[in-house]
Write a structure and sequence with these properties.
CATH topology: Rossmann fold
Strand order of the largest sheet: 4-7-3-8-9
Pathway: Pyrimidine metabolism; UMP biosynthesis via salvage pathway; UMP from uridine: step 1/1; Pyrimidine metabolism; CTP biosynthesis via salvage pathway; CTP from cytidine: step 1/3
Keywords: ATP-binding, Kinase, Nucleotide-binding, Transferase
EC number: 2.7.1.48
GO molecular function: ATP binding; uridine kinase activity
Bound molecules: adenosine-5'-diphosphate, ligand L45E5XJ5
Order of helices and strands: EEEHEHHEEEHEHHEH
Enzyme class: transferase
Number of helices: 7
Length: 260
């Protein structure tokens, strides 16, 4: 296997398929996952076998670090700061993204919000793809990770809307009660958004106001990705043609010249 090297924060000298890496950031419940889902839907990638997908999506939540028992007790009372950069294992995230960029198959755990823990037994296999979407509140916070993205999107949804959605989602899907959600929001989520997430908006290439409601912005992004995928397909078929020509030359049955 080739060594993965970085030059000026970008990958260099790698084998295999190097995907186009798109970072999708924004505050909690801004619609990051929904925007990624819309992009995947519009590109016809959702009802497709995982091994065949040209576009895949992963979440930063798969890189929350493991908590000690004392931290889990705090988390159960809404007293752990999951919005601080220290809550993440950014080294593991960088390593995984480098593997993905090197065109290697990876395994990424899912995250269990009810138990505040990763579910290593419920990992998702990420097969080599042409485009990889990486969504999360702090995907632009760590410079080593920020520098890996070829395109950066920031989902910008007003904070009242985000809080309203978060309350409903956390109660219905993440096993929380109202007091817990509001206390965590006031004590950690909101201050951390202002200190760590919001300042990273300046790194974005495209800001998407109103998230998934902004169909114009989503269609423009989808069009850009579609053009990229078409170019990938063109260069794949050119590579295949070259391969056929060289193979036949080696077998001695035909006399094609090696193509470059
Ligand atoms: N445009 C929208 N209109 C209504 N509800 C939305 C919209 N976008 C997202 N939601 C809902 O808000 C919640 C958070 O959205 P999600 O995409 O998971 O946000 P994030 O990934 O940023 O946390 C989910 O319950 C989702 O269904
Ligand atoms: N055990 C956990 C882990 C994370 N959170 C919150 O999730 C938010 C990030 O996910 P989004 O889908 O909203 O982007 C983040 O704001 C954490 O507060 C949690 O509550 N419990």
């Amino acid at each position: 296997m080739s060594e993965i090297m970085k030059v000026n924060g970008k990958l260099n000298g790698i084998n295999g398929k190097t995907p186009f890496l798109i970072g999708v950031s924004g505050g909690t419940a801004s619609g990051k996952s929904t925007v990624c889902k819309r992009i995947m839907e519009k590109l016809g990638q959702v009802n497709m076998d995982h091994t065949q997908r040209q576009v895949v999506c992963i979440t930063q939540d798969s890189f929350y670090r493991e908590l000690s028992s004392a931290e889990i007790l705090k988390a159960e009372k809404g007293q752990f700061n999951f919005d601080h950069p220290a809550a993440f294992n950014e080294k593991l995230m960088e390593k995984t993204l480098l593997e993905i960029l090197a065109g290697r198959k990876c395994e990424v755990p899912t995250y269990d919000y009810r138990n505040h823990a990763l579910r290593p037994d419920d990992s998702i296999i990420i097969y080599p793809a042409d485009v990889v979407l990486v969504e999360g509140i702090l995907v632009f916070y760590f410079p080593e990770i920020l520098n890996l993205f070829h395109m950066k999107l920031f989902v910008d949804t007003d904070s009242d809307t985000r809080l309203a959605r978060r309350v409903t989602r956390d109660i219905n899907e993440r096993g929380r009660d109202l007091d817990q959600v509001l206390n965590q929001y006031i004590n950690f989520v909101k201050p951390a958004f202002e200190e760590f997430c919001s300042p990273t908006k300046k790194f974005a290439d495209v800001i998407i106001p109103r998230g998934a409601d902004n169909t114009v912005a989503i269609d423009l992004i989808v069009q850009h990705i579609r053009e990229y995928l078409n170019n990938c397909q063109k260069s794949d078929s050119e590579k295949n043609l070259r391969h056929v020509a060289v193979t036949r030359t080696n077998s001695g049955e035909a006399h094609f010249k090696r193509q470059h």
